[in-house]
Amino acid sequence: MARKPPQKKGLLMPLLGAALIGVLIGVWVYNPFEPAPPIPTIEFTDPYDDSWGRLSEPNSRATVTHILIAWDGTNVNTQKAPRSKEEARKLVEQVWHQYKANPTEANWKNLQRVNNEDSAPHTSYDIPGSLVQPFQDTGKSTKVGHARICESQFGFHLIRREK
After folding, report:
1. Spatial strand order in the sheet of 147-152
2. End-to-end CA, the chain
3. Tens of pLDDT along 39-83?
4. Predicted model pTM
5. Which residues of the chain have pLDDT under 70?
6. How many Å apart are CA 44 and CA 35, to the nearest integer?
7. Any bridge partners for residue 160, and if so which?
8. 1.20.1250.20, 3.10.50.40, 3.40.50.300, 3.40.50.150: which CATH number matches 62-161?
9. Integer CA distances (angstroms), 82 to 23, 53, 93, in order
10. What is the rounded distance in angstroms from the CA atom of residue 71 to the CA atom of residue 85?
């Protein structure tokens, strides 16, 4: 009767464990998923230009996202420091300039993350809908990929047309 050669037992599990630990350390050390860099603070002095991205004829339907910037007295729980209406106007225009200088979806998402005071900050809204009229009017009359400002009882909305 032929004998089986002796087998090395228990070597596979330590090797798999070491490989897994090596992969985890490699991912931790060389993590390509870094947080978005902070938005540079650039003081824009040009006035807001409502014609940028404005359609000559509004559409009947649109899908939009927005950044809400409120002021004291709008009954919105602001996540930022309390501000006057004038300060809110200046801030929304600065955010508009930052988007206009780099009108990409990534920049928009970063601006939303930093500035939006809406309770649902990344929600898309279909127009027509149950939104305030200035919001709907601005959304329907904005070109896809552009953003424009409107005012409502909630604050200033920087509205970006998605489709």
Report:
1. 125-127, 62-69, 155-161, 147-152
2. 78
3. 556 677 788 988 999 999 988 999 999 999 999 888 776 666 688
4. 0.71
5. 1-10, 24, 27-42, 77-81, 121
6. 25
7. 65, 147
8. 3.10.50.40
9. 47, 30, 17
10. 5
